[in-house]
Amino acid sequence: MIKLLIVDDEQIERDGMQVILSHAFPGVTIKQAKNGKEAILIADRFQPHLVLMDIKMPGMNGLESVQHLSNEYPLMKFIMVTAYDTFDYLKRAIKLGVKDYILKPSRASEIVTTVGKVLREVEEEQKKREMIEQQQYTLEKTLSIAETDVVTQLLFDHVHEIHLEMLLEMLDIRSINEMYVMVVLISTGSENMYSTIKEKVRKAGNSLIGALYGNQLPIIMFRDQDKSFRSQAVFMAREILSVAKVNKKTNCFIGIGEVCCSLEEIRKSYSESLVATMDTTLPVKYRFYCDVKSINVVGSEQRVKQREKEFAELIRLGEWEQIHKSIMNLIQSYENEGADTLQTQQRILELLWIVSRLMNEMGVETVSPFYSFQANDYRQLRSETNELLQQMRQLYTKHYDQLELDSIFLMKRYILEHSHEDISLDKLAKKVGLSPIYMSKLFKEKLGVNYIDFLTECRIEKAKQLLKRPDKSIKEITFDVGYHEPNYFSKVFKKMCGVSPKEYRKSIFNRN
């Protein structure tokens, strides 16, 4: 809605002007002011787009009022209304940015033309501002999606079409020499704090903020070279925790990983930040991984790689019973050695991360597991570990069940569409990306028939439809459905339908 203010010390002039403009521009809201001082007071509340200002008024004159308003509201436009057609007034008005002037007295048509020209200018500027605001909103939304996408790729190895470097360039992230991960655990029911925390983090430092995974909010922080790592991280942690203090029902705990020097190593810092969140009962609601590092030695690098290799093979084969047995045996060995429960919990957690990461690499989407509480004894640790393994197994099973359903659908569709062609088991297996042996086994288990029987059924059904057409000979139909020899086709058809193709066609025509 466009708003217009008429300023004149003569009531009759104001009313006359309003009548003319209301009739010509019914969509414009109009108010009046009787002098310059009142014009300023009304403009503060009314915020007019255009002011018709009389020059000669008692007290604050029109030019003084225009100068004051244009300083306060740079986008406001002015038309001077005056009986003084002198160069001096016009020169001063032009310097103040006045768009035009109306002489007293003027014809109604002249007033409408002058005001209409400026109102069109106001409308055009409004449209441009709205377009710019919409573009800005769209850009911010796009950048927000890109930002969470980058964090997802870096921490969870999801594959996206847009290359990572392009996303970083879009987000104007240049300095990536040193970085670390902070994980914010947000209490259940407080997920609405996500946007507030995100805004606080943006203002406080150079960072990439991920999406909320369950109750985990991952943040990749880039080192400020003018500050120490610890002071920068503590400042950011306190800023985030200050958000939680505003809402007394919200509880947060922050884990801080070690600094790494490349994007390829960022997942290690993420894992470290999760380790630091394991004991949320601490009086200070943030903890650095380095403060618990002494009890986090999983073993030699060679042993870690060996375990990764072992777990990768077990996951690939779906041997979840063996994975469960291996981890439970390890817990038992730590208990037999008299190891501290928290030490063991942290070591087992790192093994679960290996399993989770390998699942992600295989395309099974899973959030990195973490214990919801610090185990008081080994019984609790076994129970919680068993629960985490069950959750991961369910995600794995769901993923591969869906893959099998998708594969069955693709096989059926391909056979239906290409039943008239020579379809070998090898050719069909390549089309769906499976081994011939596994594909044959899957087809039999899910559909109850082998693939060749299904292919035969498709061909015979197609033949039945073609036999309804008298213009088609049985020889032509033989080739159309994928057979090369009419006699063999007739034998297969009779075996499937109990009658020969010729008898089947005759029965159809007799019924008709």
Verbal overview:
With 512 residues, the protein is of the alpha/beta class. The chain folds into 4 domains: 3-127, Response regulator (Rossmann fold, 3-Layer(aba) Sandwich), CATH 3.40.50; 175-293, 2-Layer Sandwich (Alpha-Beta Plaits), CATH 3.30.70; 301-399, no CATH class; 419-511, Orthogonal Bundle (Arc Repressor Mutant, subunit A), CATH 1.10.10. It is built from 19 helices and 10 strands. The chain has a 5-stranded parallel sheet with strand order 2-1-3-4-5, sandwiched between helices. Strand 7 and strand 8 (216-222) form a beta hairpin. Helix 7 runs antiparallel to helix 8 (229-246).
Task: Indicate the CATH architecture of the largest domain.
Answer: 3-Layer(aba) Sandwich
Q: What characteristic shape results from the CA principal axes?
A: flat
The CATH class assignment of the largest domain is: Alpha Beta
Termini separation: 73 Å
Which percent band covers the strand fraction?
5-15%
User: Taking all residues together, what is the mean pLDDT?
Assistant: 81
CATH superfamily of the largest domain: Response regulator
Question: Can you summarize this structure?
Answer:
The chain contains 19 helices and ten strands. The chain is α/β, with parallel strands linked by helices.
Labels describing this entry:
single chain; five-stranded mixed β-sheet; Rossmann fold; alpha/beta; 4 domains
Task: Outline the fold blueprint.
Elements: E1 3-7, H1 11-24, E2 29-33, H2 36-46, E3 50-54, H3 62-72, E4 77-82, H4 87-95, E5 100-103, H5 108-156, H6 164-170, E6 179-186, H7 194-204, E7 207-209, E8 216-222, H8 229-246, E9 252-256, H9 266-276, E10 286-288, H10 301-317, H11 320-337, H12 341-361, H13 378-418, H14 425-432, H15 436-447, H16 451-467, H17 474-480, H18 486-497, H19 501-511
Parallel strand pairs: 1-2, 1-3, 3-4, 4-5, 9-10
Antiparallel strand pairs: 6-8, 6-9, 7-8
GO biological process, one term: phosphorelay signal transduction system
Domain HTH araC/xylS-type: 409-507
Keywords: DNA-binding, Phosphoprotein, Transcription, Transcription regulation
